[in-house]
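During the reporting period the student researcher (J.K.) took over the structure-prediction task from the postdoctoral fellow and processed the backlog of single-chain submissions. One of the processed entries is reproduced below for the supervisory committee.
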Amino acid sequence: MKIELDRIDFQILTLLQKDARHSNKELASTVGLAPSSCLARVQRLKESGTLRGFHAEVDPEALGIGLQSLIAVQLQKHSRPVVKAFWKHLLGLPEVLAVFHVTGEYDFQVHVAVRDAHHLRDLALDAFTTRPEVSRIATSLIFESARKTELPRL
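J.K. obtained the following structure tokens:
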């Protein structure tokens, strides 16, 4: 459900994107609302799907992740059932962090996190190239990455 956002909604979203641990009291004070009004706005943002969740950023190495990669995947066929089935397969893999259905030479870009190069090789062989809908893959190692936590207001 799409809702109209006003200046205060945008302020709340900006604050929560920067730090989702803000208390309702802190949010209300910063945006100039009573705590009950602020809580009602946050609830409305959640219920509408505008606020999709709250996340913690974790050091990958603390979880045994030593390598991240982008795997470009070209499918043999592009029918809706094939794309949906492959999408579902990818989201079921624990190593998959993000999936992008894209245009161009490849049909998917898949961000994966693995222990090491051996784990990446096994994942590529077992979860990608054995799939009948996959024509070919290309793997790019990620040396460094940075992610903005705040979406632009367009």
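The committee noted the following: The chain has two domains: 7-47, 60-142.
J.K. will present the remaining backlog at the next meeting.
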